[in-house]
Amino acid sequence: MSRDHAQSAERPVHDAGAPVLPAPSAGAETPFLELLARGASADAYEQPVLLARADGGPAEWVTALERAKLLALRVRSELEGRRRREAELSALFETAHDLAGLRDLDAVLRAIVQRARSLLGTDVAYLSLNDPARGDTYMRVTEGSVAARFQQLRLGMGEGLGGLVAQTARPYVTDDYFKDARFQHTRTIDTGVRDEGLVAILGVPLMLGHHVIGVLFAADRRARVFEREQIALLGSFAALAAAAIDTANLLAETRSALAELERANEIIKDRSGVIERASDVHDRLTELVLRGGGVHDVAAAVSQVLAGTVEFAEAAAAPVRALESSRAEGHAVRHEDDWIAAVAAGGELLGALVLRGHPGLDPVDQLTLERAAMVTSLLLLARRSAAEAEQRVRGELLDDLLDARDRDPRLLRERARRLHADLDARHVVLAARLDAPAPDADQEADARRRLWAAASHLAATRRGLAAARDGGTVLLLPLDARDGATELARRTARDLGTAVHEAVTVGASAPVEDLAARPETVAAAYTEARRCLDALRLLSRSGDGAAAEDFGFLGLLLAGDRDIAGFVDRTIGQVVAYDERRGTELLRTLDAYFACGMSPARTKDELHVHVNTVAQRLERVARLLGDDWQSPARTLEIQLALRLHRLSAPAQH
Fold first, then answer.
1. How many angstroms separate the CA atoms of 92 and 280, rounded?
2. pLDDT score at 177
3. Least confident of 45-59, 276-290, 307-321
4. Residue 118, number of CB atoms within 10 A of its CB
């Protein structure tokens, strides 16, 4: 109902602003009073006039009935308007009452949406809220919705009818959503609206101050014109919804402030106990240093004081970002539910103390962990002189293996045994070098010393050997059965880079064995590792690790033993094996295919077979070698492997 119509309905019957109707004849109003009394529909008021005309009643009587009908309809309209306003005021009062006793925000918002739908008589009502964290808007409450996708709709800011309401902070109404081009349509929104079957939509903003925090909607599944009174009513519900949200936020902030006060009180109560723990750990750490305890003894002592699990971790095993942050700031830092305190000496990271599962660490306890890390670094430095002596012995043994000076296998094994190394195991020789140029000679020498120290420490922990050589470092490390030379090279580059805080490039040899009996193989393997290292640097792969097998056919040039059979097997071995098992001609087809410029049509002429046969064979090759076998890099390697296979074939017969 329009506002003008509503205002006219509110005026008395003989208001000067409305046309004055002559009073009906006595008795003409009786049937209409009965209709008013029983609340009949507007259509029923035509019946007395129609009956009078059908019975041939006097014209004066029919005219009197017409005037009585108009007066009755005006009274009926006035009564309906009053009832509607009473219902609206009652709903607003009930909603305000719910808001005053707010306990559950969702329940209040649901009541607002339900009452808005009921009073406006729409098929659907729903409320959306802005999500500042994600930068979009989401459905908070729906009533009358039947489409799951519509109920879970999320839309970007400024999109759809709701976006226009949010931008203008004013109500917006559309009689036919899909024909309205005044707002931005998106596929996501249109799909959700179409699933719900909505046509006419009214949206009003939820305002907190001057900010729009959401939109309250009423919608029908048919074309409809929303009147001004309905827009105003929905706006009133939107104001109550915004007030409910604001009240809930204030309650949450109040609860949070109370919780903070409670926590502060608990901290004050615990302060004396924390100070006592700090004094206790100081005494324990002092005692540990005086009696020559180790880093794990320090970790155990701090675990008891902090009532948690404290462990010493190598630099490579600690979270990289947290470790770097702790070293740079000089404080313990939180990492997920743990705390990390860097153990450093100068610019070198020696490891970290890790407090497990203690996210809410007290500041004094944090300081305790930091002091324990400092004591740990002092203990490590105190033991470094002994470790360096052992490293020199390891370096001397590796130097002898590289120079093949001591050829007595028994003496070599004995020297290795004292260093907890096993020369009879499979090893890989690795050449490591720093890539960043040093500003001057002193800094370059210092960087090389740090690399040698890190490599020696790594070798000692892995039962290997390390020595400084040719401006870099050479390592001899045992090869785990589950690893390959490539994996070991990459892991070593990563571990050394973490330890010295610079990019370290590592080249690896193929695995070597029986080093005590054949020490000359160490020198050959070192030459191969250096070739791989130089190749990595030429290819601008600083900070990486690789072995000869990683370079494809270039590995033949890098490898010391020119492993032709290994290259052929890695490249086309599956095709060779398939031909041998099945008696097929995949190798011959590949030769012809490449010779014919990779043209299936020319290949079938060369082989004197049907083109479908060529296609089937090439599909089989793709399944054996992978879908990328025809890429430029792969085809080059495959053609080289085919040629090497042909050249070596006579020797195999």
1. 65
2. 92
3. 276-290
4. 14
Q: Nearest 5 degrees, angle CA 208-CA 214-CA 220?
A: 135
CA–CA gap between residue 197 and residue 146 (Å, rounded)? 9
pTM beyond 0.90, yes or no: no
The interaxial angle of helices 59-100 and 47-54, nearest 10 deg, is: 170
- How far apart, in Å, are the Cα atoms of 234 and each of 171, 430, 487? 9, 76, 67
DSSP state of 438: P
Query: What are the residues whose beta carbons fall under 8 Å from the beta carbon of 480, sequence distance 6 or more?
Result: 488
For residues 638 and 574, give the distance between their C-alpha atoms in angstroms, rounded to a whole number: 12
**Amino acid in position 22:** P
The secondary structure of residue 24, as a DSSP letter, is: P
**Contact (CB, 8 A) for 584 and 549:** no
Contacts 24+ apart (CB under 8 A), 340-344: 341/369, 341/370, 341/372, 341/373, 342/373, 343/295, 343/312, 343/373, 343/376, 343/377, 343/380, 344/377
Does an H or E element contain 452, and which?
helix 441-461
Q: Are 223 and 215 in contact (CB under 8 A)?
A: no
Model confidence over 58-106: pLDDT tens digits?
Answer: 888 888 878 877 887 777 777 666 666 666 556 555 666 565 565 677 8
Q: Is it the case that residue 517 has pLDDT exceeding 60?
A: yes
Instruction: List the structure tokens of 561.
Output: 């033993």
pLDDT band at residue 222 using 50, 70 and 90 as cut-offs: very high
Residues with Cβ within 8 Å of 369's Cβ and at least 6 positions away in sequence, in order, are 302, 306, 310, 332, 339, 341, 353, 355, 361
Q: Which residue has the higher pLDDT, 630 or 516?
A: 630
- Helix H or strand E segment including 525: helix 520-538
How many whole angstroms separate alpha carbon 431 and alpha carbon 398? 13
Higher pLDDT, 178 or 357: 178
Q: How far apart are CA 506 and CA 585, in angstroms?
A: 42
Structure token pair of residue 123: 């098929």
**What angle (nearest 5°) sits at the alpha carbon of residue 254, between those of residues 250 and 256?**
115
If one compares 503 and 30, the residue with the highest pLDDT of the two is 503
Alpha-carbon separation of residue 625 from 600, 616, 622, 640, 641 (angstroms) = 18, 14, 5, 15, 13
For the cut 50, the answer to whether the pLDDT of residue 3 exceeds it is no
* Whole-angstrom distance, CA of residue 121 vs CA of residue 80: 15
Per-residue pLDDT tens for 227-267? 888 888 888 888 888 887 887 778 778 778 788 877 767 76
CA distances from 360 to 162, 357, 473, 496, 606 (A): 42, 9, 43, 33, 76
Orientation angle between helical segments 611-625 and 600-607, nearest 10 degrees = 110
Q: Which of 404, 389, 341 is nearest to 368 (CA)?
A: 341
The residues that bridge with 218 in the sheet, in sequence order, are: 125, 202
Mean pLDDT of 172-185: 90
User: Hey, CA dihedral for 584, 587, 593, 595, is it positive or negative?
Assistant: negative
Neighbours of 429 (CB within 10 A): 31
